[in-house]
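User: Some background: our group keeps a shared notebook of sequences we're curious about, and every so often someone picks one and asks for a predicted structure to add to the entry. Today it's my turn. The entry only has the sequence so far, pasted here. Could you supply the structure so I can complete it?
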Amino acid sequence: MINGKFGCALWGCGWVASGHIAAYLKNKDCHFVGLGSRNPESAKAKIAEFGLQECVIYPTFEALLNDERVDVVSICTPNDLHAEEAMMAAKAGKQIFLEKPAAVDPDELDKLVKTLDEYRTKTIMGLVLRFNPLSIMQKRLIAQGELGNVFLANVDYWFGRDRGGWMREGKRSGGAFVLGGCHSVDLACYLLGTQIAAVRGDSVQVGDWYDYPPVETAQVRFANGAKGVFSCSLTGFVPYTANTHIIGEDGTILNDRFYLRRFQEQKEFFSIDTGVRKTGDVYGHPFPAMVDHFIECLKEGRDSEHNVASAVNSHKACFAICRSAAGGGQWIEL
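Assistant: Of course. Here's the predicted structure to add to the notebook entry:
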């Protein structure tokens, strides 16, 4: 703690890091201590972007972890580094804001969860859709029974852009659903309040920009009996699109459009504007709400309900979709 505030630091200064830094700077209970990156120039760029006058640049992740002023660390490095770095942070006694995905394969995910439990580390996952006002309202309606028995949940994550560097490599990114579609897979589980029991995947290689199929689809069986169809596309001429379609016996949700039996006179969907920006830009994501939530959890001495453990099932569903697609589309039980 620094003068009663949580000392916060960040490792990995890519695109998403800006969302984390801006959120820490807005929270009155946070003191942003410093940041670091494997690329020193990217760290300097973040300092210039936010006009940080008193900010440490850590030359290594170990240097950050050895700074006793740091209570909370954001890990925003490439996907294949997340699990190992989160375990290092846990062993150093830090609390963690971990960017998605938590890991790129089931074994390292299990190892990470075990380590976090052993060191009683408090975490929050960077699954931003859970914190969108629209998602919060959707979840409340479903939990309150407005849709009745939900039997179908379809989600899509489409965002065609040329991602560079490590994101072009399947071994490092984890695959299409792991890299991007995990947001929508996790949201489906979160909204329905259940886990995924089994998946069957398929994929298609489009172009040669990625060394793995940038398009994946899946059929899904939920533990509560509902079914689903998921799709993820990292390519194509399409802007950021995150569709959420949920059908129940008493109502239907199509993104921000609703059709509910409670309104007997309703003849067509009605829309509600929750102010959500339909953008893949990190500056439009609800990082401030996430940091505010996590800091309140730390002040109260409790772990977040949006921690790493809460996303294990959705992660394993993404891994299984990729594995099923590569193996001919067989059903995989989770």
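Suggested note for the entry: The radius of gyration is 20 Å. The mean pLDDT is 96.
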